[in-house]
Structures are given as C-alpha cells and as structure tokens.
Amino acid sequence: MLVPDRLPKESARDFAFRTLRENIISLELKPGTQISENEIAAELALSRTPVREAIIDLSKASIIEIFPQKGSYVTLIDQKMVEESRFVRDVLDKAVIQLACGGCSREALNEMDENVLLQQFYLEKGDGSRLLTLDNQFHRLIYIAADMETTYQMRSSMMLHFDRVRSLSLSTVKDTKIVQDHCEMLDAIKAGDREKAVALVDKHLKRYELDKLWMRKEHPEYFK
Amino acid sequence: MLVPDRLPKESARDFAFRTLRENIISLELKPGTQISENEIAAELALSRTPVREAIIDLSKASIIEIFPQKGSYVTLIDQKMVEESRFVRDVLDKAVIQLACGGCSREALNEMDENVLLQQFYLEKGDGSRLLTLDNQFHRLIYIAADMETTYQMRSSMMLHFDRVRSLSLSTVKDTKIVQDHCEMLDAIKAGDREKAVALVDKHLKRYELDKLWMRKEHPEYFK
DNA sequence: GCAAAGGTACTTGTATACAAGTAGACAAGA
DNA sequence: TCTTGTCTACTTGTATACAAGTACCTTTGC
C-alpha cells in the first residue's frame, strides 16, 4: 500500500480514510484484498481506533465489506452498483449543468477555464493520474457554479465505484475526447445552452461504457 | 431522549445510531442540542466507542456537527441544505418513477397496494408517526420496484434534513392530499404513464414547501 | 488412514484509560 | 474595576486491553 504524507493538522482518522480511499480507487489495493485493522494501523503508525473508524466510513459506501469476527475486504466491483452510480451521476449531472447554464459567477467560470487549460497540458504530458484529478475537479466546479456543493459531496460517495473502473483505463487510454468534451461543456455553460449541455453530459458518460468493458475483459478477477 | 428496545442481534453501534437518528428526526433532540458521547453512552448503557462511531456516522450526513475538544451538537436546520435535499429528491424521484413505469414485478405492485391501504387506515386513525413511516416506505418501494435500492439508500442519507422538517408538520397537519398523491402515483405506475407520474412527483414535493414555511414560522429557533 | 476434539492465532466488537485541548469559575494582583 | 493566571471540569481524539467469534492446524483416539 502507498502511504502518503500526513497533512498538517490532519486527524489520524482523516489520514487513515484518505490513505485507504486513494489506495482502493487507484487499485493499489485490489478488489477482494483483505484489510486488517491491525495491519493498517501498524503500517500507518496509528492505533486501531482511527483506522477502524475510517474503515467503517468506507464500508458505508460499500467499498469495503466488513464481516464481523471474520475480516474486512475491499469489495469486488459490482456491475449493478457501477450501473446505479452511473445512473445517479447521469441524472444529477444533467440537472445541475442546466442550473449552471442558468448563469453562474465570473469566478466559477475562471476556475473552469483554468482547469480545462491544465487538462490539455497534462494530456499532452501523458500524466493520467493528474488528469483523473482534474477531471473530478472539473465536474465539482460545475456543481459549485450551480451552488450545489453538498449535492456534489453526496455524488462523490457513490462515485467511488465508478472511479475504480475509470482509474486504470483513463491512465492507459488517455482519451483526448474526454478533455474535448469538457471544453465543449464549458462553452455550453457560457452560452447558456441547456440542450447542448445535457447532450454533452450524455455523450460524455457513454464513453465510460468502453472503460467498463475493457476492464472487465482485462481484469475479470476484479468483478463479482 | 427516547430509548427504544434494542433489537435482537443488533450491534451496540447500530443501536446507538438508530436511537440517535430517530430522536433527531422526531425533533425529540432539538436542533442545537448538545450531544455528549459520555451522556449518551450512559443513557444507552454502552461504552463510548460504539456511541462515538454512531455520532461520526451522523456527522457525515451533516445532521450532527462535531467540534473537536469542544462538543457535538445537533445541527440547526439549514435552509440551503433542505433545499438541496429537495432538489436531489426531486431529480431522483422523477427519474426512478419513470423506470418503475417501464414495468415492475407483480410483487412490488402488491406491496405498494398494501402500503397505500395502510396509509388510508392510519390517516383515519390520525396516527401521524405511523403515517410518516408508511410514507417513507412507499417511496422506498418505488425505488425497489425500479431495482434501484442502493440509490434509495443514498437518497435517504440526504433526506434526513427534509425528514426533520416533515416530522412535526405531518404529525399535526395529517394532510389527506399526501395519501391521495400516493394512490395516484401507484395508478400511474400501473398504467405506465410516465408523464402523469412525473407530474405527480412534482406536485407531491411542492406540498412540503408549506411544511417548511409553517415550521420556520412556528419554530424559528430551529433554523440557522 | 481418518475423524473428531481441542488448541491457537487470527479477526472484529466493545470497554476503558489516557492525552490534549477548551471554557468557565475564581482568586490574586495591579 | 479590570486583567491575568490557574485550577477544574468538561469535551473529543487516540491508544490499549479485553471479549467473543471464526478458521485452521494439530493432536488424539479409533
């Protein structure tokens, strides 16, 4: 497992949560892997308590499954769960982008401009990991622009399942179309073109279908 | 605080979570109230650990706010949060009921029939608390009918804010229209009439606007 | 050889002890 | 009177100890 630096003032629990989450999404901790509270605690130089609390949090999002008195495991990727995540994302993203089309602050637009610029930069550099971060950030900025940040947080917890599937594929495929989609979405928001924006979200999400198929073919052992 | 019976095989953590959640939603624990891990633990005859874990869970849904080394408090009702909850519910409910209109099992329909019957029964009896439970259950059944139960769980966590506002008003108002709405929704699902179903969800949600206004007028001290 | 019993080493669940930080009471001193 | 320091009693955060259940291996008996 990759152990990042502990941020200043970060609580033990938050540190454990962040570490586990990143390792699971990046597939560094593979689906099916057993998670021992004691082992993780030792690895992070913490006691069991904060580690346990972090694991409970992650189990709430069904990304870790706890079997009392037996053990805890990184869940296998569940096709149905990924599908529902996709559905929620589809429905919320379309509703929110329409709000954003209704007008948002200069600030929010600037941040999105900057984000898209960086996406193009790292796309050329071929830095898939950085791209994934910017991708997530871009969609978050849309929610912020629509003043729906709490809703975004909720979306995030469900998106964990989706993120795992994207993780590997985005870092190898480096699809230029995804960045292109983001550019066009931003344009649609600026133009206040709801119809175009919704169509773009729809097209955008369909791309991940390929990711899923590719991953399922390449790593069937990750799936339930 | 009202302490329910502990269910058989229920873990201490689940028991603490359930107890706190119910007391908060029912406004038995009023917005702004301080929650002491020690006090709750004593009251439920548990140690701090499971109580603490339950409190952390509830803080994830922003229904309890934890100030480290200071104290934990039942959050005041946040208008923006209620608004976002309403938005999420609106968007998801409309999408899901359309799926249900696409056809669902005989079983699911039977359960909904039964539920609506009970709603009418308890409406006449004037049992608001029982009505609230049935109301929640009805909407859950729609999600189950659409095979979107995980999505419903996500919806639930955000709905806590909404539920608090409904709690008092539903128990006093006992609006016959709400039960009527449910009947019509069920009919629309049976008929596969998407358009009608969506319109009903829309109308249904608008009723709660009145709840909010009533509550804000009656209990301004509960709001942020 | 095989089956059953029991020990052992793990797991998570819960309880308790201690650490660290905050708020308020209260008294001492300017 | 007001300020300041300290003590006390609280809070949550973390560490540790113990309880209870599971899986597996080993040993014992046939």
Overview of this protein structure:
The structure is a homodimer of 224-residue chains. The mean pLDDT of chain A is 91. A 3-stranded antiparallel sheet of chain A has the order 1-3-2. Chain A has 2 domains: 12-74, Arc Repressor Mutant, subunit A (Orthogonal Bundle); 79-222, Four Helix Bundle (Hemerythrin (Met), subunit A). Chain A has helices at residues 12-25, 37-44, 48-60, 79-101, 106-125, 128-145, 149-173, 176-191, 194-218, and strands at residues 34-35, 64-67, 71-74. The longest helix of chain A has 25 residues, at 149-173. The first copy, chain A, has 224 residues and is mainly alpha-helical. Chain A contains 9 helices and 3 strands. The first copy, chain A, is globular, with a radius of gyration of 18 Å. The A-B interface holds A 11, 49, 53, 56-57, 60, 62, 68, 80-81, 84, 87-88, 91-92, 95, 148, 150-151, 154, 157-158 and B 11, 49, 53, 56-57, 60, 62, 68, 80-81, 84, 87-88, 91-92, 95, 148, 150-151, 154, 157-158. Chain A binds a DNA duplex (30 and 30 nucleotides) through helix 3.
